[in-house]
Each structure stands twice: as C-alpha cells, then as structure tokens.
Amino acid sequence: MDILNAIVAILNYVIVPATTYGAQLALGALGVTLIYGILRFSNFAQGDTMAFGTAITIMVTWGLQSLGIGFGPLPTALLALPFGIAITCALLLGTDRVVYRYYRTVRAAPVILVMVSVGVMFLMNGITRILIGVDEIKFADGARFLISASEFKSWTGLTEPLAIRSTQAITVIVAGLLVWALFWFLAKTRTGKSMRAYADNEDLALLSGINPDRVVTVTWIIAGALATTAGVLYGLDKSFKAFSYFQLVLPIFAAAVVGGLGNPLGAIAGGFIVAYSEVAVTYAWKKVAGYLFPSWDTDSLLQLLSTDYKFAVSFTILIIVLLFKPTGLFKGKAY
Amino acid sequence: MKNLLLASTAVLLAAGAANAADVKIGISIGFTGPLESMAPDMAKGAEMAMKEVSDSGKLLGGDKVISVRGDSTCIDAAAATATVTKMITSEKVDGIVGGECSGETIASLNNVAIPNGMVMISPSATSPALTTIDDKGLFFRTAPSDARQGEVMTDEILEHGIKSVAVTYTNNDYGKGLADSFVEAFKKKGGTVTITAAHDDGKPDYSAEVGALASAGGQALVIAGYVDQGGAGILRGALDTGAFSTFVFPDGMVGGSLEKNFGKEVNGSFGQVPSSEGEGHDKFVAAAKAAGFDGNGTYAGESYDAAALILLAMQAAKSTDPKVYKDKVMEIANGPGEKIYAGDLAKGLELLAAGKPIDYEGATAVHLIGPGEASGSFREIAIKDGKIETVKFR
C-alpha cells in the first residue's frame, strides 16, 4: 500500500503536471524550431502568436456558446480551434508579406530578422490586448475531471489522491496527434520533402525547382496551427492571460535550444526536459520517502532546490547543454 | 540666500496664518501602477475630510484646505520621492497623506519628508519595516502593520483546531513581510509550519510549487498572494490535485474573483481583511455615497482618517507647522476626550479650539499604537456555499 501511495504521489504531483506542461512547451518549441530551420531566424513573436490565436479561439468559443453549440463533455474551444488557426495563419501570412518578405529578399542577416520579430512581437502583443483585454480569462467548459482527487481516493482507498483533469488528457492526446501528423507530413508528402530540402540547402533546393514562396507559406501555416493549438491547450489547462503567454517565450526557447534548434524531434524532447526539470528538481521528496521508508523520520523536506529556483533549473540545463553540445542534444543547426 | 528664503517663507507663513490663508495637504498615492484601481477612492476619501473641514470654516480661524494630488506610482521609489519633493519644495504643502505602498513610502520618507520635517500619514503602507523606521515622530499610518495581520491569522487558524500549515507567499515586500510575521507568530504559539515557499506572479506554470507544498503537507495552506495573480494559480493547482482542502486567505486573496473563480470549491476555507465596523464606518460610507464614491473601497476610510488627523492636529497645536503639530497626532487619535466620528470634524475642530480634548475615531475606529500605526481591526471571513461571509471582527 505504501509503495502504491508513493507512486501515486509522484504521478499526481510530478508526472501528470510535468507531462502536460511538457506537451504544451513541445508544441510551442516545434513552431519555433520550424521557423528557425526553414526561415532561418528565431521567431520571438511565437508566444504572442499563441496569445493571438487563443484570443481569436476564445471569441469564436463565446460565439458558439451563445448559439447554444457545445461539444458534449469536451471543451467547446476545440470546435472553435480551426477558426482560430485560420485567422492566425492569415495574420502570419499578412505579417510575412508586409514585414518578413522584404528582409528575406534582401537576404538580411538572421540577427536582423530576430530584431524584426521582436518588433512583430510587440505589435501582436498590442493587437491581442486590444482584441480581448489584459484580464485573466477562463474558457474551459465540459467535464473538468477525468479522475478527480476525491473519487480516486474513495475508489482505491489510498491516502494519496490522484487527479487528472480532462484538459490534461486532451492536451497530451491532441499534442501527440499533431506531432504525428507533422512528422508524417514532413517525411511522406511532396511539400514536406520540399520543405526539408529548402531547410537543408536553400540554393540547391531553388535550383531543383522548389517554389520558395510555397515553402514559406506552408511553413507559416504550420507554425500558425502549432502556435494556436499550443496556446489553446495551455489556456484550457490553465487560463488565458496575455501576459503569461508573453512569459511562455522563455521556457519555449529554452526547450527548442536544449533539443537543438531546427530539429523537430529535439523540440519535443526539449519541451519535456524543461518541464520535468522544473517540476522534479524542485519537488520535495519528503512525502514519498515517508511512504517508502516509514521508519525514517525526518524534518527535512528532501528538496534539492527551493521552488524559487525553478527557472534557474531549466537555464542551467540550457547552459550545460550549450557548453558540451552547442547545437543541442539532437544536433540542430546554427546559423 | 538660504536664510533669506527661509525668512521670507516664515514671513509668508505668518502672514498666511493671520489672513486665514489656505492650508495645503498633499496626497501622494499611486494613481498609476499596480494599485491604480484603489487610488481614486482613497484620494476622494482624503479630499472629503478636507472639504468637510473647509466647509466648516473652523480650522484656525477659517482656513480653507486645498488638496495637492501627486502620483507615487506605488512601485517606483524614485518617482515617489520626486513627487513628494515637489510637494514639499514647490507646492509648499503643510502635511502629506501617503504614500500608498510600503517601498515607495520608506523611500520618500527617508529621502525627503524626514530631512524636511514634513508629516506623512500613510493610509495603506503595511510593511512591518515601517514600525521600526527612525521617523523623528513625523510618520504615522492609519493602516495596521502586517505583523498584526500575522497575529490575527495565527489566532484564527489555532481556533479552527489547525496546528500545522504550509505557507506560500508572493515574492515581493508584501508577501514576504506578511509570511515572515505570520510564521513567527504561528511558531511562537506552538504551531508548525511545514514549508514556506515563494511563488512569482504571472508565471506560466505552478505545478512545481504545488508539488512541493503538497509534499510538505499540513492541515491547511496559507496563501499570502494576490487573488488575480499567482495566488489563484497556486490555489487552482492545490484544489485540482487534491493537495489541500482548507485554505487561509489573507487580505490579498479576499476579493470578488475568489467567489467567481473558485466559489464552492473553497467552502470551509477562511481568512481576514483589514476592516472596521461601527458608527464612524457607517457614517463614512453614507457620506461617501452622497459624494459619489465607494466608501467601502479598500483604504478609502483610512485615507479620510489620515487627512482628518493632520487637520485636527493642526487645530490642536494652533499651527500648520508640521514640526509643531506632529506631537498632537497621537493625542488626538487615542483620546481621552469626546469621541469624534467621520462627519463630525466640525465638532472636533470646535472642541479643540475651546481647548477641550477629543478622541478621534473617524471612519476606521482609529487607535494608534507603538510608533503611530493603527492597531488594526480585522474582519474574519469564511467561505460558505461559495460566498464570502463575515464571521466576526477582531
């Protein structure tokens, strides 16, 4: 029983939340890494693209709700998601046309594009706030829990609770499907292959007749879809607040860089590494140890690092990885 | 040159008193910044006291009171210092109501008010650090120190039969100060604190904090945070994972969004907010309503009292010089004498003019302790059926 309790405690406070958070970061990092691999710059506007897409999705959700349309036990926002993606993609393509295309044709240095993306970030920041305001918004509806803490306790008779929110399950499932679809697309389809060719060697790809405009368009569409989905999943699981999305850029970039910028597999691994390190390294193991070694009575929390330092953890990992493998764990690119 | 200036100022002041000139009171609070939503009601509260005194025509033979507003920004100590400097040197105020937040108050007090011998009465700075500051008798506050809230919270928790708690606080002066004072008071009375963990506001994820708090355990979780910020994130995580079922909410967590976003989920939890009751409070709320603002707004009553204390002290000392009237503030606030409630300022001025003592109660049952800070009455609340209900006053 005590061993079970220990396992449940770890599941409830480490595995479940970290996996969810990791999936959210992984989707965001995938968007960053795709832009980096194909368009060759770090897109700092990623967090605010997520915020914009989520804001649109929330507004469509409200519209659907006022029409009385729901999605059964699932959140209505999932129905609204395609609309959010479409509008976000339109915005990204518009931005590309008005802003990025010029710098691409003049073959500006990557650092200039990074600065441009910072400008775009502040603009999107403003647009999102004008659209939906700065307040915290909760838009999850439908069933809240797959397994609720009190139900789990009465079913199993364990002293430790386990709770899985339906949004956590949805996050992991949707993220998994999306990643599978993306890899299938990149590996099997003609467009996917042309994108990889363009990423590998732009000049050679152009010589072999690949249409660069098409590659760029598809990249932005995929990035928009990833960003909006990541944003909506994150918002469903926690809540929407324009400022928190802006803050998300840091862990997302940490994830993409740890995994290897430009490498999609690395982005996913990076997302989970950052999430797990934040939660697990600062976890206090006192309770778990109490179950496993009942005779060991200690006042210590058995906490490696106080939670104050949780951000330091992911950045320490980032520095260590960059010191020993400058292109990231999964060998990304460096421009 | 300096002497000449001083002399001419003195002449001006003397002339002013003789001609029943204007008394200027500065209001240095955060009209912009993190507490900007509180500031308008606070300023109107203070100005209501000034208007009451002006209208009575009884202050020092009919002086009118003029309000000088300034923005202390709440978070930018340099901006607050500049505001107070301007009030003292160019506006030549005779007393200041402010500042609003603890950090900026300490800065403007040390840098400008004390060197210039200016009285500052803060309606809302609650940091325990202000209790021990060397203020030369120039600083008072009509808000209680957070040390007091720590004690009140300790008593409440122990009365609920809870002996061990986990504590999380928002990582700033308010959260840290409150958590420290609570932990000290709670341990002194025999309680156990299993963990004291900070959380930062506006972060994307609080799983790590919730995990650590849950592992440390305890019968209840004390959240010294903000209900629109990280405090809500911690509360949501703790509820969803089933880590805690009883929560203790200090003032920053008691707000409309607690009912709206958590409602019945936090049934059985409890907390406290600085508050007052009684005759003065009712009178103040009614007068505020007539004047077109919310008298129940946070620290609105305290602002009224801060302004009223300055003006009554002037009357008692028969001088608008801060260095003179500062000694009268405690005397007026604590009595003995006839009790003066909000709305009775004219009567208070009259009695003082006749040389009779008064005991100023004002809007918030003012009673200053220690170096001149409110003893603090708190309203204990409990969540019943998803609603915040008042249990009693402490």
TrEMBL record, chain A:
What keyword terms does UniProt attach to this protein? Amino-acid transport, Cell inner membrane, Cell membrane, Membrane, Transmembrane, Transmembrane helix, Transport
Its placement in the membrane is given as: Multi-pass membrane protein
List the record's Gene Ontology CC terms alphabetically: plasma membrane
One biological process term in Gene Ontology: D-alanine transmembrane transport
Question: Which cell locations does it reside in?
Answer: Cell membrane
Alphabetized GO MF terms: L-isoleucine transmembrane transporter activity; L-leucine transmembrane transporter activity; L-phenylalanine transmembrane transporter activity; L-valine transmembrane transporter activity
What superkingdom does the record give? Bacteria
Tell me which family the UniProt entry assigns to this protein: Belongs to the binding-protein-dependent transport system permease family. LivHM subfamily.
Protein name per its UniProtKB record:
Branched-chain amino acid ABC transporter permease
Q: What species does this protein belong to?
A: Paenirhodobacter enshiensis
Automatic annotation (TrEMBL), chain B:
Spell out the Gene3D superfamilies in the cross-references: 3.40.50.2300
Q: Where is the Leucine-binding protein domain?
A: 23-323
The organism's superkingdom is given as Bacteria
Any one GO biological process: amino acid transport
Tell me which Pfam families the record gives.
Peripla_BP_6
- The UniProt record lists the keyword Transport: yes
Transmembrane annotation, as ranges: none
State the InterPro entries in the record. Answer: BCAA_transport, Leu-bd, Peripla_BP_I
Provide the leader sequence positions: 1-20
The protein's UniProt keywords, in alphabetical order, are:
Amino-acid transport, Signal, Transport
Which family does this protein fall into? Answer: Belongs to the leucine-binding protein family.
Protein name per UniProt: Branched-chain amino acid ABC transporter substrate-binding protein
Q: What species is this protein from?
A: Paenirhodobacter enshiensis
